[in-house]
Amino acid sequence: MRFLDRIDLTTLLLVALLLGLAPFRPEPHLVEKIRLLFQGALSRPIDIFDLAMHGTPILLVVLKLVRMARTR
Predict the structure, then answer these.
(1) Any residues with CB less than 8 A from the CB of 64 and at least 6 apart, and which?
(2) Contact predicate 54/29, CB 8 Å
(3) Helix (H, G, I), strand (E, B) or coil at 53
(4) pLDDT-derived band of residue 65, with 50, 70 and 90 as boundaries?
(5) Rounded Cα–Cα distance for residues 23 and 8 (Å)
(6) Residue 16 contacts residue 58 (beta carbons within 8 Å)
(7) Which position has the higher pLDDT, 62 or 21?
């Protein structure tokens, strides 16, 4: 987890916002892929890759915040 400690929180938040909301129109990929996941229609490999690519930065932000809270 040391790699996560070395990443600046501001940078990580910026990346999470940009990738989480990209493309901005007509609908962010992350919103679309989560909707497909809950509908049970997330089956194509490209859709699963998109979910992982757009969701990973947000997961890293959550992990970093939890780690910061535990060390303080």
Answers:
(1) 4, 7, 9, 12
(2) yes
(3) helix
(4) very high
(5) 24
(6) yes
(7) 62
